[in-house]
Amino acid sequence: MLRINCPVCGTRDETEFTYGGDATVVRPAMDETRAQLWLDYVFNRDNPRGPHTEYWHHVQGCRQWLVMERNTLTHEVGECHLAKEAC
Amino acid sequence: MAGQRLKQGGRIDRRKTLNVRFDGRKLQAHPGDTLASALIASGEMIVARGFKYHRARGVYAAGSEDPNALVHLRTGARHEPNARATTTQVFDGLESFAQNSWPDVRFDASAGIGLLSPFLSAGFYYKTFIGPFKGTRYWMFCESFIRKAAGMGRAVKINDPDNYDKLNAFCDLLVVGGGASGLSAALTAGRAGADVILVDQDFEPGGSLLSQPVGEASDDWLEDVLLELKSLTNVRILTRTTAFGAYDEDVYGLIENVSDHLLAPENDQPRQRYWLVRSKQAVLATGAIERPLVFANNDLPGVMLAGAVQTYVNRFGVLPGQRIVLSSNNNSAAQVALHLARAGADVTLCDARPTLPAELSDPLLAAGVTLLTGKLVIKAIGRRKVNAALIVPVDAAGRATGAAQKVTCDVIGLSGGWSPVVHLWSQRFKKPVFDDNSGSFIPAELGRETVKCAGRMVAAQTLADRIASGVTAAQAALADLSLDAVDTSVPAAPALPFDTGWADDILPVWSVTDAKGKTLGKAFVDIQHDVKLTDIDQAHREGYVSVEHLKRYTTSGMATDQGKTSNIIALARMAELSGKTIPQTGTTTFRPPYTPVAIGALVGHEHGLHFTATRYSPIHDWHLAQGAKMTEAGAWMRPWYYPDGSETLSEAYRREAAHVRQHVGIVDVSTLGKIAVQGPDAAEFLNRVYINGWKSLKSGRLRYGVMLREDGYVMDDGATACLGENDYFMSTTTANAARVLAFAEHLLQTAWKDMKVHVTTVTDQWAAFAVAGPKARDLLQSVVSGADLSREAMPNNHFVNAVINGIPVRIHRMSYSGELAYEVYVASGYAQQVWNALHAAGTPFNLKPYGTEAMGALRIEKGHVAGPEIEGRTTLNDLGLNGFASSKKPFVGSVLRGREVLTEASRPTLVGLELGSAQGAKSGSLIYAKGVAAKGHGEGWVSSTTWSPALGKYIALALVQSGKSRTGEEVQVVNHLENQTLSAKIVSSHFYDPAGERQNA
Ligand SMILES: [Zn+2]
Q: Are residues B709 and B858 in the same domain?
């Protein structure tokens, strides 16, 4: 079980969070009309073996979306910060 | 001769005799015995029957690695299958039974017939699944037959009467294993003040020290260390507790057998307790498991691990046989031979090695042990139990090099070296590495781990080395915890005779065969799953080269013991056959649990009502008091219908729906999702997440909105009220409340960080009631003060703040039923009072409550979409909601909703169906054109269905290909599950009052 160090709540069990997918994708601007950019944002993902930057939602805690480094191979958890704060 | 209790010795309380039975026969048992030691002491040689061939099986080991002695424990609701006799602590009144045998474990009718043998060689399941027999009656026949004959234990279908507990724990250091190295680690860390949890699966700590004779010097050491450990308040010692799983971030799963050693739990204690331990550091001191040697008839009762024989003699005072042959390839059997000879047994030690060093052989010869060097047992002889051992001279590969000799005996003790218990380490990190020095797999150096290993688990050999490695591991953990080791002088290691370990001079022999490499009969690798050496050979011949494939093809190592004694032998054979080394062949992956875990322990209290949270509206008790039938909506309980007397669901909802259209009804809609959207950019936020425009919405107004997912499909709908300049009150469907909130939070915290908006769930803070029907206004006006609800003052999509019986409420005018309707919002804590006030005022207007079924009927009559239509695969156009979408602004999903697949003209679209029949359509029924064969997926499906009291017929909502252009067409409505075909006419989905005159009244 992962233990996630929420910047607001401290280190908590994985079961309090939901996974939010790849955090490196950038949502296109609202007025973006090119479908390919939206398709990339919504569907197209790399599947890296090793370090991965991802979203976790502290859904049963402070309800903040976090950006966390996780190694997909070893499950080692790295740096974790609030998504709304630039890292 | 069978096993018997020695006159003296053992760590048992001979003053007390316990009433313990096996298949009804009374056993000789004392406190301190396991069921296995009591069985051996009572001469019960045959305790189980083999999985496939029903061969007689006896006690084989003395710990959780035993593959054989699986029994039923207890009767009635506490009956427990597949319990290991070797780890079952006896108690007064324990009833145990053999399993997988009929009529009796001693005379099993299925044994010897060999009926199943041809079916059950390696790969039987695979070949039958994928071969010509796949899906055939032949397979069905085999399966039922195999299940009946080859089953393991039998479960009961009675509810378990006991409680199982869960406990979350934290510590600085978890020490797994209470043997010499684990105790040393715990003491070192405990003295330094670390918060330590020490766990051991046994009911007594001490590990292998308990297998030393009573009075040996190790007893004093153990006593001293335990005394000091118990005096340390920062050390928790958990016995009867197995660490079964090691997980990410230093989380460990433990099962504490709190009451398994009692007839029934006492003092309201649970039967078992599941600990989830979050530790900062761990020391794994899990010991090692002895390996057998494989030869013909090696499953005969009387064949045991050498160390197990030693344990039964020294710990339990039980001599498993008078004449004992040991067959070994390493030094560890020497101490066994010495202890057995001292206990009065007639001992022959066969050793694969040509010579033994004098420091071993001289004392053994002096003790009367017969030494046969360069020799091993090639076959156990006997019917249902060992009578003799056939012994041959062997070469370094275990092949016979000369004539056999027969030695009469009743026990054959085996030592093929030892396997460190690397399971937890491997679960957490990766596969272990092969250590040539000790001939075993040990943990690899990782260099970053919070897990330290000690003792036999890292192939430390002598007692002094094991104690030292425990201290070293604890010191390393303390350093990582930034704690200073204050005193590392744990009591000095006592001197033990023949404290040799297994590694020095081990001759890696795995199986004993004739000169050509053949066994002289059935020779088992995995005794619990009845996998023979020849099955491994067959898998090799058929081309299996990966150990993972070998395991699944032969099922070796897949029984409840997970191959603790057998895996290494299977892969050593694989390596030998393929001409590779063991490291080249590799090992299979270790996964939790280390030993079987009862499902009840994992469930804990989370069953029945406690399985998950149940959400209740503030009016819940009133609904129950009115006799409402309740229905589940996600976690919520909602009133389904309010039967009048003996009314059925069908009768009740028709009456309730008709009543709303004629008079006035009230329905509890408190379960709707409610989200406060607040801040200077709230309107812009709504503008982005909803498809329609929000900038023009004035304070005091509400608006129906639809939102899409990012991929362009419809996500949810609901009304949002503008409470003030920067203050909006959004409602969502009951089902999607959590999803919408999480999505809004995601957008605001990741993509739209600049927007000044807060979203807050207020679902539980507000109760809501829909009051609907021609008399709704008259009723509300009669009870409300401070608000004018007239048609002119308050048209649809307006709201007003008002007071009912002194309680502030907010009244929205919005209709879901199609009638003149209002929604009354009130703070949850006052909901019941307002509800009561409405009912009191409602008597003259004939106010009646209605449930979700009638609510559904009313909305279907109006053609309003709900969950069955907004189901994740439908677009705005599919649902006829395109008209709401703004073309003047982008919104979530506005680009991707234009994808080709989402805009195809042939997509099923929302229509109404009128059934001409006396039966309604079932939701999920498929739509076919008239006259075509009802095959395949059809041209659409029925989403919602009801009797329409207003129309006096069955109607339905459906999604039908090119639906809008097919109005008037007769179609078939086919329910393939019930072989029902109905005829229906496609009509507009707005069945009732399409102009909306009633709601605008
Ligand atoms: Zn948090």
A: no
Cα atoms found within 13 Å of the Cα of residue B638, Cβ hemisphere only: 24
| CA end-to-end distance (rounded Å), chain A | 25
Give the three-state DSSP class for B90.
coil
Decide if B434 is inside a domain. Answer: yes
How far apart are the CA of B611 and the nearest CA of chain A, in angstroms? 16
In chain A, residues with a C-beta closer than 8 Å to the C-beta of B896 are 35, 38-39, 42
Q: Over range B387-412, report the average pLDDT.
A: 97
Report yes or no on B992 lying in a domain: yes
Q: Is A35 touching B (CB cutoff 8 A)?
A: yes
Partners of residue A38 in chain B, C-beta under 8 Å = 710, 895-896
Question: For residues B814 and B771, is the Cβ–Cβ distance under 8 A?
Answer: no
User: pTM for the complete prediction?
Assistant: 0.90
Q: Do B749 and A64 touch (CB under 8 A)?
A: yes
Q: What letter represents residue B657's amino acid?
A: A
- Ligand 1 center to B956 CA (angstroms): 46
pLDDT computed for residue B120 by the predictor: 61
- CB A1 to CB B746 under 8 A? no
Give B128-182 pLDDT, tens digit per residue. 555 555 656 666 666 655 555 555 788 888 999 999 999 999 999 999 999 999 9
Q: Do A18 and B749 touch (CB under 8 A)?
A: no
Phi then psi for A22, rounded to 5 degrees? -60, 125
Please determine, for the modelled complex, whether the ipTM score is greater than 0.90: yes
Q: Give the pLDDT band (50/70/90) at residue B53.
A: confident
Q: In B32-79, at which residue ranges do the beta strands (DSSP E only) sit?
A: 48-49, 56-57, 70-73
Domain that holds residue B918: 631-661+851-890+903-1001
Angle between helix axes B332-342 and B358-366 (nearest 10 degrees) is: 10
User: What is the DSSP track for B470-497?
Assistant: HHHHHHHHHHHTT-------PPPPPP-T
pLDDT tens for each residue of B620-676: 999 999 999 999 999 999 999 999 999 999 999 999 999 999 999 999 999 999 999
Q: Does A73 touch chain B (CB under 8 A)?
A: no
CB-CB contact of B179 with B287 (8 Å): yes
pLDDT tens digit string along B947-966? 999 999 999 999 999 998 99
B687 assigned to some structural domain = yes
Task: State yes or no: cis peptide before B103, omega within 30 of 0.
Answer: yes
A80 CB-contact burial (10 Å; exposed 0-12 / middle 13-18 / buried 19+): middle
Q: Tell me the one-letter amino acid at B617.
A: S
- Cα of A9 to nearest chain B Cα, Å: 17
Both B885 and B989 in one domain: the answer is yes
Contacts of A2 in chain B (CB under 8 A): 248-249
Query: Starting at the edge strand that comes first in sequence, how are the strands of the sheet with B615-616 ordered?
Result: B615-616, B636-641, B629-633
Q: Given an 8 Å threshold on Cβ–Cβ distance, is A65 in contact with B750? A: yes
CB contact under 8 A, A27 and B751: yes
The answer to whether A82 faces chain B, any CB pair under 8 Å, is yes
Peptide bond preceding B593 in cis form (omega within 30 of 0):
yes
- Smallest Cβ–Cβ distance between B248 and the set A43, A75, A84 belongs to A75
**Residue B417 alpha carbon to ligand 1 centre in Å:** 51
Encoded tokens for B700: 């005091």
Find tokens 């209709």 and name the residue.
B815
Nearest by Cα to B271 from B602, B601, B35, B608: B601
Confidence of residue B493 (pLDDT cuts 50, 70, 90): confident
Query: How is residue B210 annotated by DSSP?
Result: G
For all residues of chain B together, what is the average pLDDT? 93
- Asked, for residue B62, whether it belongs to a domain, the answer is no
Number of domains making up chain B:
4
Same domain, B448 and B579: no
The domains of chain A, with CATH numbers, are 3-85 (3.30.2270.10)
